[in-house]
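Input (Quinone oxidoreductase 1):
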Amino acid sequence: MAKVVKFYETGGPDVLRFEDVSVGEPGPGEVRLRHVAVGLNFADTYFRSGTYQVPLPSGLGNEASGVIEAVGAGVTHLAVGDRVTYTGFTNTLGAYSTERLISAAPLIKLPEAISCEVAAAMTMRGLSAAYLMRRIYPFKAGDSILLHAAAGGAGLIISQWAKLQGLTVIGTVSTDAKAEVARAHGCDHTINYSHEDVAKRVRELTDGVGVNVVFDSVGKDTFMSSLDSLKRRGLLVCVGFASGPVTGFDPAILARKGSAFLTRPGLADYIADPAEKAELVDELFGHVAAGRIRIGINQRYALEDAAQAHRDLESRKTTGSSIFLV
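Output:
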């Protein structure tokens, strides 16, 4: 029997259940995939808590890698034994499992240079970094960014990618230890938001000008300081809301903050087109395979310890990427 993590009601980490499940044969367009590693992402907590709503009971997780064990009718671009990775949104929900049936459409074949563990740690984060760095803003060398949660899995990839493009990176962290991690992965400056005024410090570091772009994955607690950190006509990219959603937003505030721009992008819209997805995948895999971007897997959990993994993630105890070993 395969194992799966499911939840029957929304709530805290304790709603997660580790259960046996029978996995049958793949139907048309599907494969049976044996997972090797599963990614742990903050978005997983949004599904579990009900922030992202799905019909219950439900599986959890939308990023994993593994080996194909069987293919269904019509699947011609993949074969038994192929190593693959995937990420998505509701169309791939159920990654917290040892084995599953899944559509072949979102699967990405892995090159020899990238292990299943690294793939599970970077597919969602890496593709997110790819579209943020290559599609959101016309960056040029010398531009500057403010990156919240700079020591997180996505933050470390974005920092390294930004340095490849010649950008100045200012990262926010919660501890001195996380500041060291962020600087080791490309941050030029770090701000410990536990005791520093983020916007004030950004202005000091940029001679009063502000940054071109802010990548904000925190949400409610950082929204105003993010706007206050932008240069005139800068861009605030809301990529998450770990502290809660921003509510009561008045668009007129953008004019008062220097005619700022605001966007709330989603990965799904940047990988929906197969050609664009392939281009982002090739660039990401190329950087990782060549060692230009390092993927730090700093936490490894057993799948049955999913509840504890969520507690660690939500309490900000983690750095870099986290995975489940299957």
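Residues 137-264 form a domain with the Rossmann fold fold (CATH 3.40.50.720).
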